From TrEMBL, chains A, B:
Protein name: MarR family winged helix-turn-helix transcriptional regulator
Domain of life of the source: Bacteria
SUPFAM superfamilies given in the database record: Winged helix' DNA-binding domain (SSF46785)
Residue span, HTH marR-type domain: 20-153
Length: 166, 166
DNA sequence: GACGTATCATCTCATATGAGACGATTCAAG
DNA sequence: CTTGAATCGTCTCATATGAGATGATACGTC
């Protein structure tokens, strides 16, 4: 039997894995807590789900957007966006118009009521974010933003590498 | 009319809100990307969902645990844990025994097949985490862990403050 | 001991999610 | 123009989720 350099690797025991220290777990738990808190506020104060709020947010930035642009800007899939837009249209917060250059597509924009609600939400959203951000220093916030973006890209690459083409 | 230092605040327009810069949004998007990537791997390579993997992970740390201990250790709700345990028991990866001091409760531990699978998963999980962590420096990883924990606590407080008692 | 309340894991049910199907429309190639 | 593949937003359907109900058990008070 060949002899290798003695090391912990030689034993049958795997190196320990503490779930509580595991990065994907920690990100998921933190994100879920934050989403829960914000979802509860948006629902209680404005009657909006998070997907609905995201659509409002990107349309509130000013320019009318195609559904595809909203999908890209909110990082949500087309079904989620479709359903959020349907609900927002039912509430008369968003209008859907035919796209002038493509009859399959739509142009979305905030309806007057939507603009009014948007103006009410924005300061509240800023305040809530500020409350959350009290957990961090301003430098940490900047650093966190960069890290999250890098993690997102790396994770997308990881996903794409294996069974990507289902 | 009193005159304030001229600033954008004086106008009727709310301060702009860019969704893409919004902290809760960025955390959510990053976490979703990471979860998706890891869920795909666990499913493809081991046939486990993330809730199932989490239960395996905490039981694999060694000691048998009550269901309540698993709920606490995995930060999942009791329904999610219950279902994950049922599936793991069906696959004969986990055993359920009556709790010696409380007939309502159970003691969970890895079955022999579960231990074998656990030993296969651990190095893979470490490798996947390492691949993800390549997006960050070692110092950033430590800092990120602390920030996520502080955000989680702050978010829990935010949630508890309003409609907490539903 | 008997009773009422609390907690255990599970079940029920209403909602959320997303992969794939779908009809409508666009575009590329002849 | 005609044809066929691609893309639009929505619908369908199977699965995931979690609040509340449920039956079993435990505990505190009498």
């Amino acid at each position: 039997m060949r002899r290798f350099k003695r090391s912990i690797i030689d034993t049958n025991e795997p190196p320990p894995l503490r779930l509580s220290k595991f990065l994907p777990y920690r990100i998921s738990v933190a994100a879920e807590s934050v989403s829960r808190a914000f979802a509860a506020r948006y629902e209680a104060e404005f009657g909006l789900s998070i997907p609905e709020w995201r659509v409002m947010a990107v349309l509130g930035e000013g320019a009318p957007l195609s559904t595809q642009a909203v999908i890209a800007a909110t990082e949500m899939d087309r079904v989620k966006v479709s359903r959020a837009v349907i609900r927002l249209a039912d509430k008369e917060l968003v209008t859907r118009a035919p796209h002038p250059e493509d009859q399959r597509a739509q142009v979305l924009r905030l309806a007057p009521q939507g603009e009014a609600l948007y103006r009410r939400i924005v300061p509240r959203a800023h305040a809530l974010q500020a409350e959350l951000a009290e957990a961090l220093t301003p430098e940490e916030i900047v650093l966190l933003g960069g890290m999250l973006e890098r993690l997102r890209r790396r994770a997308s690459r990881l996903l794409g590498e294996d069974g990507g083409a289902g």
